[in-house]
Amino acid sequence: MLGNREDAEEAVQDIFLKAHRGMAEFRGKAKIRTWLYKITVNTCLTRMRRRTPERVYLDAEESKSGSQWDTFLGGGDSAEEMLIEKDRNGFVLRALDLVSSNDKEIMLLFHVDELKYEEIAHVLEVPIGTVGARLFRARKNLRVAMGSLQMELRG
Predict the structure, then answer these.
(1) Which residue in 51, 67, 78, 152 is a FRET match for 11, CA 20 to 30 A apart?
(2) What are phi and psi of 20, to 5 degrees?
């Protein structure tokens, strides 16, 4: 959600502190998983609002084992398949970077974190119907962003 490893690591520390401090206030009305997602999303959104606009792509980072290219040398898939998948993922990430933070947020909660509509509604504090509408709109906006990006790459 934050787009780079350093911000994510700092956010994780903040999230654990908030969860630890807020554990006494947890009433059990929601699942603990949903409660933690809510803390996570709110922490990430706060960090995103505070930072200066900067585009950082996940595919530019180095892996723990060395350079990003080391990953391609020892895997089970062929190097060509891995490069194609990496390119495809990079394209989607770049397109996600072009949509609003609300659209990005709901797409990540549903498609990456695999939360159900009810869980997303609780995390975002919106009705379930709003989740469906926002997800529909976010997918439409992502399609438009991908089309624009594709045209930009061709031209």
Answers:
(1) 67
(2) -60, -45
Amino acid identity at 137: R
148, 141 in Cβ contact below 8 A?
A: no
- Is 36 within 8 Å of 19 (Cβ atoms)? yes
Contacts of 96 (CB under 8 A, 6+ apart): 104, 107, 108, 142, 145
Its domain, for residue 22, covers 5-60+67-154
CA dist 7 and 47 (Å) reads 8
Contact 147, 138 (CB under 8 A): no
Q: What is the pLDDT of residues 40-95, one digit of tens each?
A: 888 887 777 676 544 444 444 444 444 444 444 445 556 667 666 666 767 777 88
pTM above 0.70, yes or no: no
- Cβ neighbour number for residue 80 with a 10 Å cutoff: 9
CATH value at residue 43: 1.10.10.10
Listed as own residue / partner, the contacts of 149-153 with beta carbons closer than 8 Å and 24 or more positions apart are 149/91, 149/94, 149/95, 149/98
CB 80 within 8 A of CB 121: no
Q: What are phi and psi for residue 63, nearest 5 degrees?
A: -85, 170
